[in-house]
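Subject: Sanity check before I submit

Could someone independently write out the structure tokens for this chain? I want to compare against mine line by line before I put it in a report. The sequence has 259 residues.
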Amino acid sequence: MHVENKVAIITGGASGLGKDLAERLVSKGAKVIIGDVSVKAGEAFAAELNATKDAKVAHFVRCDVTDFEQIDSLFTAAEEHFGGIDIMVNNAGIAEYGCMLLSNAAFGVQTGNWPRLIAINLTAVIEGTRHAIETMRKQGRGGVVVNTSSIAGLVPNPAWNTPVYTAAKFGVCGFTRSFKGNEKREGADQGIRVNCVAPAPADTPIMDAVRETVKNFAMVSVEMVTDAFMMVIEDESLSGDIARITPEEGIVIMGGEHF
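---
Independent answer below. Compare away.
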């Protein structure tokens, strides 16, 4: 898919991986709907992107992805401002630190609130994908969904002490792989692809809660993860595929032999 003049929704789009991807897409001529819970950061970022172009290329929508009505509002905004969607990036996520059976510093006073982690990191991915496919079917012009997983969703690491996060990210990988060949189906699904990126830790704000846990592990650059996002968006041969990103091997598309 050539992204010029295409419209993308990015959840968790005001910081970290989502923000870098939004910048890359706009630089290549796309338009973006930025969904995020941080209103101040999201509005400022949308204004910054719009200032770089002669026409409006970004719009911010306050979105808590645990609220399905707020996910719906992303699609409404995409239709109203840019005439529909072509790319859906389910990127919003939170991290976990400490075994769920003991304590969980990432949640503060909500110690052990593992259902919220599942709601953000897995359930919202499923709903975002469902809504995107439904919308793309109606539009009839194909499209691509990209889900953000993690290396933890491919190779569990007990040293990270993140069992629920790992479970959610395994779920994202399995969910994505279930769409292998979806774009070749007869009828409304033709041309609709679903892919996934699974990066090793990258230096983004989500790492703040788990930085101590992963401090001895090599990180990947945000730029490399964005390269992987663009690969699974632009390469129309990729469908139901996972792009694994590690410091040692760079970007690797996971084939059947990897599973």
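---
OP: Matches mine. For the report I'm noting this point. The two ends are 27 Å apart (CA to CA).
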